[in-house]
């Protein structure tokens, strides 16, 4: 018989978990398309759940925005392990950097809303950054070990370059430029022959 503590730490039902994931997916699309003031009732409807289900998972707009951001960060962090298992080191690094471009785009849309709603979202961002830095460092270390990447490459330099492109972006096609930059960065990171 489970103890009281074990009973209170029960995993959510699978349908509840699917609802939560669907809400987050739809919310990301809605916030990206229409901004932070998107109707939560519309998000619930588009996710195929009632408003009560949405509010049970995310009692406030702030909690939903924060959850969308954290989910995107988790995808980015966990992709490192998946790519490392499935791809050669240099391709794993390239795939992760391309995913990072998508993360930057999501953050550019979500961060201003979090700033406006939370005032100071540093705690949300700081917790996520640690996982992101670990992921890129592990991929670069693996690529250096395989001989695909120069030994003097600092993983942070790759991220700075991509963030730089995003920060000076003045056109909606900055993501295309950032994707081209990933290939340039990979080519420039190869060991000298």
Descriptive notes:
The structure is a single chain. By secondary structure, the chain is an all-alpha fold. The chain has 2 domains: 12-59, Arc Repressor Mutant, subunit A; 65-193, Tetracycline Repressor, domain 2 (Orthogonal Bundle). Helix content is 78%, strand content 0%. It is built from 9 helices and no strands.
Order of helices and strands: HHHHHHHHH
Approximately how much helix is present in the residues? Answer: over 70%
Class from secondary-structure proportions = mainly alpha
Q: State the major sheet.
A: none
Q: Give the mean pLDDT.
A: 83
Any guess at the CATH architecture of the largest domain? Orthogonal Bundle
Low-confidence stretches: none
- Secondary structure: number of strands: 0
**Strand residue percentage:** under 5%
Count the domains. Answer: 2
Topology record:
Elements: H1 4-8, H2 14-34, H3 40-47, H4 51-57, H5 61-86, H6 89-118, H7 122-146, H8 155-167, H9 174-188
Helix pairs in contact: 2-3, 2-5, 5-6, 5-7, 6-7, 6-8, 6-9, 8-9
Quick summary:
The chain contains nine helices and no strands.
Keywords:
single chain, 193 residues, mainly alpha, Arc Repressor Mutant, subunit A, Tetracycline Repressor, domain 2, 2 domains, 9 helices, elongated
């Amino acid at each position: 018989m489970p103890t009281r503590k074990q009973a209170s730490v029960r995993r959510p039902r699978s349908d509840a978990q699917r609802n939560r994931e669907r809400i987050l997916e739809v919310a990301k699309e809605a916030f990206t398309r229409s901004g932070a003031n998107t109707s939560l009732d519309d998000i619930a409807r588009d996710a195929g759940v009632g408003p009560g289900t949405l509010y049970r998972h995310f009692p406030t707009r702030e909690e939903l925005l924060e959850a969308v951001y954290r989910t995107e960060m988790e995808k980015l962090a966990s992709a490192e392990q998946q790519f490392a298992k499935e791809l050669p080191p240099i391709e794993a690094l390239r795939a992760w950097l391309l995913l990072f471009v998508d993360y930057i785009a999501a953050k550019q849309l979500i961060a201003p809303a979090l700033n406006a709603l939370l005032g100071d979202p540093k705690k949300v961002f700081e917790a996520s950054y640690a996982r992101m830095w670990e992921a890129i460092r592990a991929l670069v270390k693996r690529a250096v070990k395989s001989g695909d990447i120069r030994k003097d490459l600092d993983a942070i330099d790759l991220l700075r370059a991509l963030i730089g492109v995003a920060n000076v972006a003045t056109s909606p096609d900055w993501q295309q430029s950032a994707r081209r930059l990933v290939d340039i960065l990979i080519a420039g990171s190869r060991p000298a022959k």
